[in-house]
Design brief:
Length: 131
């Protein structure tokens, strides 16, 4: 019989190294797992709702609202009034992504900002395309 066998000593004493945890350790482990799961779910949920929300109000302070009534080569008619569009106009969709001017359509809702020195030239615009 081998007296120095560590596996045999553990069995004789009724110990199973690594296979048993104290009650408190299990509670902390479960709480940690739940905390990680809740954090992951809240981050995923937050990112989904942010993508669906319109631009924040602070982003559109000073913007005018309207509907595109005509599209011309270098101008847009919004609610019947003609506005020039600068070549470097910043145009975003309602999710804050860059929008190509080729996607503009009559009846699209817009929020737009005109230049201070020329109130008939649009420099920034947020477009909500019809769905």
């Amino acid at each position: 019989m081998m007296k120095n066998d560590p596996r045999g000593q553990g069995k004789r004493k009724g110990l199973h190294p690594g296979s048993r945890m104290g009650g408190q350790s299990r509670v902390f482990l479960r709480a940690g797992i739940m905390l990680v799961a809740a954090t992951v779910l809240s981050v995923v949920s937050f990112s989904i709702t942010q993508a669906d929300d319109p631009p924040p109000q602070t982003m559109v302070v000073g913007y005018q609202n309207g509907t595109i009534t005509a599209i011309n080569e270098k101008t847009l008619d919004i609610d019947g009034r003609t506005y020039g569009v600068t070549p470097d106009v910043v145009m975003l969709d309602d999710h804050g992504r860059a929008l190509d001017s080729g996607r503009l359509v009559v009846s699209a809702e817009v929020k737009f900002h005109v230049k201070k020195e020329q109130n008939n030239i649009i420099e920034k615009m947020i477009v909500t395309l019809p769905r």
